[in-house]
Amino acid sequence: MSFINYNIKKISLSLIEGFYFILKNNLFLFRLIRKAGEMQLSKKGEIPVSIIIPTYNEKDNLPVLVKEIYSIIKKTDISPEIVVVDDNSSDGTGALAEDLAKKYSIQVLKRPGKAGLSSAILDGLKIAKSDIIGIMDADLSHDPSIIPKMVDAIVRQKNQLVIGSRYIKGGKIENWPLKRRIISWVAVFMAFPFTRIKDRTSGYFFFNREILEGIELNPVGFKIGLEIMVKGNYKRWKEIPYVFKDRIAGQSKLNTGEIRNYLKQLSSFLFYRKPPKMIKTLK
Questions:
Q1: Which tops the pLDDT comparison, 79 or 218?
Q2: Residue closest to 181 by CA, chosen among 160, 163, 161, 167
Q3: 164, 132, 104: which is closest to 46 by C-alpha?
Q4: Cα first-last separation, the chain
Q5: Which CATH architecture has domain 46-267?
Q6: For residue 277, how many other CB atoms are within 10 A of its CB?
């Protein structure tokens, strides 16, 4: 009887040791699988974003901007694609953009003539690959350091339109003469009936592509952002403050023709819907 009990104990100990061995190795295997899954999740967790940058004679500014964007974005989960739409620049901006595309993820669309800012953005949208779209100027007036905040406001906070704002707390304009400031203030005030967004003439904004479904955008003029603010199919939006700095190199594109186009644009908004509910701005 004692012999049988001894064998049962021995078998039990062997089973326990075997079970422990299997468990230990499976735990190791499980950790490996989990680690691989986390690595895969991290890869899949990258946020694809297309940033459209229209250019006309921005040879001195474009490489600085591209380097700044990538320097800021490399610390985040954002996977960027830059779409440069060049309007036959006489200073070689288009060729320079193609050189930059050898090092960075850049698509370059070279157009045969100077067709304007709004149409450049619309053409850029046709080739942009991501659902999250960013629009910014090439002249270094739009601070790229807020790009992570703008993307986060779309991805995590579920806003559909995010505007870089000069006219909320924390935002401001530097190095503008009084005449330019007055023109900007008047333009912003004139658009008040159409949207409650504070910076209605901002050219720096990010949005989810879905807000453009079923709407027709006017390619004339340079305030495509206002066109999207008024016509876009969105419910949640946010403004994020930044400091607008006037261009260092090159010349401003503002002229009397663009002012006339802006007035025509405002008159075309008379029958569009009321703006969506305000979402508190990030500080």
A1: 79
A2: 167
A3: 132
A4: 80
A5: Alpha-Beta Complex (3.90)
A6: 8
CA-CA distance, 250 to 265, in Å (whole number)? Answer: 27
The pLDDT score that the predictor gives to residue 32 is 42
Q: Report the alpha-carbon distance of residue 32 to residue 91 in Å, rounded.
A: 54
State the DSSP H helix or E strand holding residue 59, giving kind and residue range, or none if neither: none
Q: What is the DSSP letter of 278?
A: B
The 132-135 sheet, strands edge to edge: 106-111, 78-87, 47-55, 132-135, 205-208, 161-165, 237-241
Query: How many residues does the structure list for the chain?
Result: 283
Burial 259-271 (b: 16+ CB within 10 A, else e): eebbeebbeebee
- The phi and psi torsions of 171 (rounded to 5 degrees) equal -100, 150
Pick the closest to residue 72 from 135, 130, 149 (CA basis).
149
| Burial degree of 275 (CB within 10 A; 0-12, 13-18, 19+) | middle
Tell whether pTM > 0.90: no
Q: Which amino acid is at 130?
A: S
Q: Please, what is the angle between helix 93-100 and helix 62-73, to 10°?
A: 30
Q: Are 186 and 175 in contact (CB under 8 A)?
A: no
Helical H segments across the chain, by residue range: 2-44, 62-73, 93-100, 117-127, 147-155, 178-190, 224-231, 256-267
Sign of CA dihedral 45, 279, 160, 97: negative
The domain segmentation of the chain, as residue ranges, is: 1-45, 46-267
| Least confident stretch, 24-33, 117-126, 172-181, 245-254 | 24-33
pLDDT, residue 14, reads: 56
What's the Cα-to-Cα distance from 148 to each of 11, 122, 133, 156, rounded to whole Å? 61, 23, 13, 11
Angstrom CA distances, 225 to 133, 187, 219, stand at: 12, 13, 11
